[in-house]
């Protein structure tokens, strides 16, 4: 049992961040790119070693995978009981996340070497990537909720920096601000949740919180607010933080706009790693949710289900390929949340938990692949919009094949990775909530439809004339595509139920053909519809959208959620709250201050003659009066 | 007479004489030199009470740092031929009066009070003790003042650079 | 230093130094000399702190550390003061406190 | 009286006991002071004279000349002859100089280096004082020397001297930081500032070998910064002959000039022996871990030879710098310190602290 090298997983990206950020510009851009990539390669290797060691060498202790504290040191001591540690916690989900993050991040690094070539701020890009990797890795191996919060915020910052990477573009700046403000708002809830939780349990430590000892929650019994128990509040508030990062329904508005960042960033942050932080958070705290706040879990499942349906519907109407992918990400994360929400604890009951983590793993592979493929297409066509594309399969053979694999995977075609995980999710949903199962079933079809709408529009469809012939991307970009394609094909064969489960004890999972066959069928139906509508250029899609009329418009405008937010902030908050407050501030508060100022000015104008500006004289008066005071106090009184 | 007593009175004599000279000499660089003597003699005090680190700090920061800074500013602002004018009589009288009365008062206070020297075993003042106490957070830990001083020094450094910078 | 040297003698020397500093502060007009007087004052205080520590509480280091911090602050103060003095010299071509009355009122 | 070339503590202790047996303690102490003082004084003079000789020879060889070769065999007594000449020269005092400071300045420089020598351990048991803040003490004392230079420059009432002194002051004050931080790295490694402890901690290998790359970086920085701190070439712009005639000691003559000159060479010696002590193990022979056989062979060479060997090697390096590199401009000099050495040094310290914290070094 020796994980002393795991500390390097954190330190190397931090070191490359410092190096590239501080002195990177002194060298040729490629130097910082290579340093970042090699650093990531090293920690990817380390992460694989750690996973190997954890799962296969050390293995289970007493029938379950233990929670190993690989390193821990005290950082802040608030009271003797409440102290904040910084350390490394290894358990199945954190080890799995290490593998996911390092793999995707490494691929993205390699890909960026080609994609960002010649961009201004190349080394800045790589330093931000390193910062992001550092903070994301720190987040998943956090031993306690406070350390997680610190890295959580760091992740937010690096996401902000990366979205606003093209800071000379107004839209990018606006998008980065939007992302930052929305997630910050959610993190406020998270922080309050942390404080509530730690106030009652007197600990931040995950090992204690999720351990078998439930007596720490004794103090929460009977404490309630607005009809809900305090633990439900805490869990909901914590989930609010997760929902902000994972872009769940009311807080999802930042993710589509975040596509303003460079495409590798979208792949890394807004598809594979950061947005699943919310899922990870709920998974990490799962025992707390399950035993202490089952109501919150129900909320989570409904929010997840609604988001997945809602986002899938919007994705069917969008034309910007990155936005389609963004909405599909939303939808898939909704899936994961839902699976967590309907999961039980222990054994086969916990299939939802396992399925959620499984789907997270697969999703990271194929969604990163989709985004990188999209990046490759954008690189070739210099446009984000579907209408500018068509018939690209001849020009971009490798991208075409890998993109097709990813689309098949996400559509749930049998024997590709997502087929297995999606099936498990549907099983879990079917067992606990028929309504949500129906929703997810529908979403499975929608997913297949919009993904193939995208695919046919890009690679088949009308013959577009390009200003210059699109050409396949360089090796640095296609190799990650191929590796990720392999990942998305074969990741499904990992026996997840043996490795990552809710109580860390392995169980047997079976294919449920009663659910798998219909879900495959609806997926194939979606693909078929897309094939009919978009294989050749035709007028049918337009007619369909016309016939749907207002509903189509509403979906196309993302159900006007952004507008609702604008209405609430601009019209209601600004007018009804901010205006009166501003008036009060300007007239009452400032008026008082001005009055005091006026009194001070007039009175001081009259006594300013006493201030001679003669320093020695001041000193003399000061010492002399001190002496006189001493004389008075010691001899006279 | 024991040697250390002799040494003490020697150092005291240097301190007394040189501090008077510091404020009475008419050439400014000589004042700085006398100040240097006072500070070095003070470092001698610290060596005598076995606080060697304190003495080292006194030498590095006061004698090697502040006095050098002062001499530097003298080099920049004064010419060798310049001598102080005699202070006005009023000021001179007031200054001496305040100084003497204050000294008399404090001497009386010191002599009237009976100090009770402690017989507790002296603490070993090695680097380990200083380091752990300076950065400790518990009892006898000075981490907070240490950090505050660090911030203050940073602020002072930035302030000094901004103030002394030549205008554009 | 402890044997044979009464604490009062040390204190008298340091208080002499202190009031010499005060006296210099009052009678001198050159800013640098005033700064030197302040250093004398601070130094006198430092001696007191160290000596009290050594004589009265030898098992602790509070006075020692306090003196250490005073030295640190003195360094900060001197650097800022000298920056100010040089700036004033650049503008007014003089470092006499009597001349620096532009900011009066 | 036991005499052992490998360990001098027996000898010194015997002298100490002898004196205390014969005299009252006060007088014994004073006698000891006098003896130590005299020895150091003598040593100071001899080393100073022969450093000058060494420098001239090294310079000559670098420039493909013969160097001093008239007085004595290989010119060995040349510097002594020079000293006699300087002693007999007239002491010129400038008319409008500040006489007090003008006369005192050379002594401040000399005293500073003299005090520093007191803390150098020459061999096992052969050092005058062993403070528990030894390294810091050396830094502290040598930081006073610059005041002498500044006073000399100002009190000479000459613009060359003033400019030279200002340059020198700025240089010394800035490079002191780097010197201190470079020494700090070894202090972190060995966990002590006491020179004897630092040397003991190198019994199984010198810090420059045990401390990985950061220690080597500190060593290089120490060499550069201390070369600058002692105002030697290529950082000798404070006394740049071509522009300032001779910088702060332009107006000095005779033995006062010799004091400055001697002080400068002694500073080089101090710096070199500090580098040897802290980074190369001082009098500690070259030991490799637990290779008993090898270590015993190395132990056969007496510590005092090790010490002088290392010191002379480093002094030779410093002389080599002087006769190889062209002189820097003042702005280049300050840029080098503030923009390169200091940041590198700070990062280095950080890395070293981390290494020590994780225990990733050879203890």
Secondary structure: elements and pairs:
The complex is a heterotetramer of chains A (637), B (168), C (105) and D (363).
Chain B lengths: L2 H22 L3 H21 L3 H26 L11 H24 L14 H8 L8 H22 L4
Helix pairs in contact in B: 1-2, 2-3
Chain C lengths: L6 H21 L3 H26 L5 H31 L13
Helix pairs in contact in C: 1-2, 2-3
Chain D lengths: L8 H14 L2 H38 L15 H11 L10 H20 L15 H9 L2 H11 L3 H32 L4 H6 L6 H4 L1 H18 L11 H4 L9 H26 L12 H8 L3 H22 L5 H29 L5
Q: Enumerate the spans of chain D where pLDDT stays under 50 for 5 or more consecutive residues.
A: none
Instruction: Give the mean pLDDT of chain B.
Output: 85
Indicate the CATH topology of the largest domain in chain B: Four Helix Bundle (Hemerythrin (Met), subunit A)
Question: What best-fitting shape of chain D do the alpha-carbon axes yield?
Answer: globular
Into which percent range does the helicity of residues of chain B fall? Answer: over 70%
Domains of chain B, number? 2
Succession of helices and strands of chain D: HHHHHHHHHHHHHHH
| Class derived from helix and strand content of chain D | mainly alpha
Number of strands of chain D: 0
Average of pLDDT of chain D: 83
The backbone outline of chain B, from C-alpha atoms, is globular
Instruction: Count helical runs of chain D.
Output: 15
Secondary-structure element order of chain B, N to C:
HHHHHH
Give the assembly state of these chains.
heterotetramer
CATH level 1 class label of the largest domain in chain B: Mainly Alpha
Discrete helix count of chain B: 6
Question: How would you briefly describe this protein structure?
Answer:
The complex is a heterotetramer of chains A (637), B (168), C (105) and D (363). Chain A has 637 residues and is mainly α. In chain B, helix 2 runs antiparallel to helix 3.
Describe this structure in words.
- Chain B is mostly helical and 168 residues long.
- Chain B is 73% helix and 0% strand.
- Chain C has 105 residues and is an all-alpha fold.
- Chain C has one domain (7-104): Helix Hairpins (Orthogonal Bundle).
- Chain C is built from three helices and no strands.
- Chain C is elongated, with a radius of gyration of 17 Å.
- With 363 residues, chain D is an all-alpha fold.
- Chain D has one domain.
- In chain D, 45% of the residues are buried.
- The model of chain D has no long low-confidence stretch (mean pLDDT 83).
- The chains are: A mainly alpha (637), B mainly alpha (168), C mainly alpha (105), D mainly alpha (363).
- Chains in contact: A-B, A-C, B-C, B-D.
- Chains B and C meet through helix 1, helix 2, helix 3, helix 4 and helix 5 of B and helix 1, helix 2 and helix 3 of C.
């Amino acid at each position: 049992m020796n994980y002393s090298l795991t500390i390097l997983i954190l330190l190397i990206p931090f070191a490359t961040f410092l190096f590239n950020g501080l002195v990177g510009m002194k060298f040729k851009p490629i130097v910082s790119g290579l340093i970042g990539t090699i650093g990531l390669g090293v920690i990817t290797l380390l992460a694989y070693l750690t996973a190997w060691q954890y799962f296969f060498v050390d293995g289970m202790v007493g029938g379950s995978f233990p929670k190993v504290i690989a390193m821990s040191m005290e950082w802040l001591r608030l009271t003797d009981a409440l102290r904040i540690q910084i350390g490394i916690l290894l358990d199945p989900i954190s080890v799995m996340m290490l593998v996911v993050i390092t793999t995707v991040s490494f691929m993205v690094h390699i890909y960026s070497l080609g994609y960002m070539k010649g961009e201004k701020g190349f080394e800045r890009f790589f330093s931000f990537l390193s910062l992001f990797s550092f903070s994301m890795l720190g987040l998943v191996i956090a031993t306690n909720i406070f350390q997680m919060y610190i890295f959580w915020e760091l992740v937010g910052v690096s996401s902000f920096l990366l979205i606003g990477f093209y800071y000379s573009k107004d839209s990018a700046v606006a998008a980065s601000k939007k992302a930052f403000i929305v997630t910050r708002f959610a993190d406020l809830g998270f922080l309050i949740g942390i404080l509530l939780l730690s106030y009652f349990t007197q600990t931040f430590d995950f090992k204690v919180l999720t351990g078998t000892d439930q007596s720490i929650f004794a103090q929460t019994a009977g404490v309630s607010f607005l009809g809900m128990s305090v633990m439900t509040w805490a869990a909901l508030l914590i989930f609010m933080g997760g929902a902000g990062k994972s872009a769940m329904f009311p807080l999802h508005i930042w993710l589509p706009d975040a596509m303003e960042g460079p495409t590798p960033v979208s792949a890394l942050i807004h598809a594979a790693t950061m947005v699943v932080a919310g899922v990870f958070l709920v998974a990490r705290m799962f025992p707390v949710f399950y035993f202490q706040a089952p109501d919150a879990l129900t909320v989570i499942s409904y929010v997840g289900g609604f988001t997945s349906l809602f986002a899938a519907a919007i994705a069917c109407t969008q034309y910007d390929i990155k936005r389609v992918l963004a909405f599909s990400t939303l939808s898939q994360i909704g899936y994961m949340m839902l699976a967590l929400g309907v999961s039980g604890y222990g054994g086969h009951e916990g299939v939802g938990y396992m399925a959620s983590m499984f789907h997270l793993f697969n999703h990271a592979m194929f969604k990163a692949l989709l985004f990188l493929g999209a990046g490759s297409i954008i690189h070739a066509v210099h446009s984000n919009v579907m209408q500018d594309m068509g018939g690209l399969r001849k020009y971009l053979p490798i991208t075409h094949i890998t993109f097709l694999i990813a689309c098949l995977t996400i559509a749930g075609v049998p024997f590709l990775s997502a087929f297995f995980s999606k099936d498990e999710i549907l099983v879990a949903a079917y067992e606990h909530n028929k309504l949500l199962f129906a929703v997810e079933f529908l979403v499975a079809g929608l997913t297949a439809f919009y993904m193939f709408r995208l695919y046919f529009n890009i690679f088949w469809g009308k013959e577009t004339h390009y200003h210059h012939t699109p050409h396949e991307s360089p090796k640095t970009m296609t190799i990650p595509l191929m590796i990720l394609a392999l990942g998305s094909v074969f990741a499904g064969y990992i026996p997840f139920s043996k490795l990552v489960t809710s109580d860390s004890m392995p169980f047997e999972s079976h294919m449920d053909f009663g659910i798998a066959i219909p879900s495959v069928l609806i997926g194939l139906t979606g693909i078929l519809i897309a094939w009919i509508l978009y294989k050749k250029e035709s007028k049918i899609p337009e007619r369909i959208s016309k016939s749907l009329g207002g509903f189509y418009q509403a979906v196309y405008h993302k159900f006007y959620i952004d507008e609702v937010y604008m209405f609430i902030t601009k019209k209601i908050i600004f007018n009804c709250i901010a205006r009166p407050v501003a008036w009060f501030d300007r007239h009452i508060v400032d008026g008082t201050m001005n009055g005091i100022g006026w009194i001070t000015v007039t009175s001081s104008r009259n006594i300013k003659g006493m201030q001679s500006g003669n320093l020695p004289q001041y000193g003399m008066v000061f010492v002399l009066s001190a002496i006189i005071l001493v004389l008075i106090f010691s001899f006279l009184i | 007479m024991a040697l250390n007593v002799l040494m003490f009175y020697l150092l005291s004599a240097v301190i007394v004489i040189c501090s008077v000279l510091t404020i009475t000499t008419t050439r400014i660089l000589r004042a700085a030199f006398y100040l240097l003597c006072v500070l070095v003699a003070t470092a001698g005090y610290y060596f005598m009470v076995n606080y060697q680190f304190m003495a080292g700090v006194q030498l590095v920061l006061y004698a090697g740092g502040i006095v050098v800074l002062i001499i530097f500013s003298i080099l920049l602002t004064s010419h060798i031929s310049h001598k102080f004018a005699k202070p006005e009589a009023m000021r001179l009288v007031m200054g001496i009066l305040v100084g003497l009365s204050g000294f008399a008062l404090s001497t009386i206070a010191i002599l009237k009070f009976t100090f009770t020297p402690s017989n507790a075993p002296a603490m070993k003042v090695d680097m380990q003790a200083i380091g752990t106490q300076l950065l400790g957070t518990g009892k006898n830990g000075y981490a907070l003042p240490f950090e505050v001083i660090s911030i203050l020094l940073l602020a002072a450094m930035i302030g000094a650079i901004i103030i002394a910078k030549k205008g554009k | 230093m402890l044997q044979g040297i009464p604490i009062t003698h040390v204190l008298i020397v340091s208080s002499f130094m202190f009031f010499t500093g005060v006296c210099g502060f009052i009678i001198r007009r050159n800013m640098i000399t005033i700064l030197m007087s302040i250093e004398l004052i601070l130094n006198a205080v430092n001696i007191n702190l160290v000596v009290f520590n050594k004589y009265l509480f030898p098992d602790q280091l509070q006075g020692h550390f306090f003196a250490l911090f005073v030295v640190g602050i003195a360094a900060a103060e001197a650097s800022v003061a000298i920056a100010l003095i040089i700036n004033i010299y650049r503008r007014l071509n003089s470092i006499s406190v009597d001349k620096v009355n532009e900011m009066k009122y | 009286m036991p005499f052992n070339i490998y360990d001098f503590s027996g000898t010194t202790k015997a002298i100490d006991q002898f004196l205390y047996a014969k005299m009252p303690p006060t007088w014994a102490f004073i006698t000891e002071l006098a003896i130590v003082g005299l020895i150091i004084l003598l040593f100071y003079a001899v080393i100073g004279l022969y450093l000058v000789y060494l420098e001239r020879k090294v310079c000559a060889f670098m420039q493909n000349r013969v160097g001093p070769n008239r007085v004595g065999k290989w010119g060995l007594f040349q510097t002594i002859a020079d000293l006699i000449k300087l002693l007999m020269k007239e002491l010129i005092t400038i008319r409008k100089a500040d006489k007090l400071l003008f006369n005192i300045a050379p002594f401040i420089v000399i005293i500073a280096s003299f005090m520093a020598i007191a803390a150098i351990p020459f061999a096992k048991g052969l050092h005058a004082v062993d403070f528990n803040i030894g390294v810091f003490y050396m830094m502290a004392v040598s930081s006073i020397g610059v005041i002498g230079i500044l006073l000399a420059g100002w009190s000479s009432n000459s613009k060359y001297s003033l400019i030279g002194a200002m340059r020198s002051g700025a240089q010394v004050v800035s490079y002191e930081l780097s010197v201190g931080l470079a020494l700090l790295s070894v202090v972190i490694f060995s966990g002590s500032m006491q020179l004897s402890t630092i040397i003991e901690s190198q019994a199984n290998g010198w810090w420059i070998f045990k401390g990985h790359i950061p220690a080597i970086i500190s060593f290089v920085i120490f060499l550069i910064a201390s070369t600058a701190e002692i105002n030697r070439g290529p950082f000798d712009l404070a006394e740049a002959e071509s522009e300032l005639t001779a910088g702060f000691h332009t107006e000095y003559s005779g033995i006062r000039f010799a004091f400055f000159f001697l002080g400068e060479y002694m500073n080089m010696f101090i710096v070199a022996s500090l580098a040897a002590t802290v980074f190369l193990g001082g009098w500690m022979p070259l030991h490799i871990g637990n290779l008993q056989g090898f270590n015993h062979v190395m132990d056969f060479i007496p510590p005092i030879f090790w010490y002088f060997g290392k010191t002379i090697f480093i002094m030779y390096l410093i002389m080599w710098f002087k006769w190889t590199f062209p002189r820097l401009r003042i702005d280049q000099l300050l840029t080098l310190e503030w923009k390169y050495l200091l940041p590198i040094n700070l990062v280095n310290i950080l890395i070293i602290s981390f290494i020590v914290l994780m225990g990733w070094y050879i203890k």
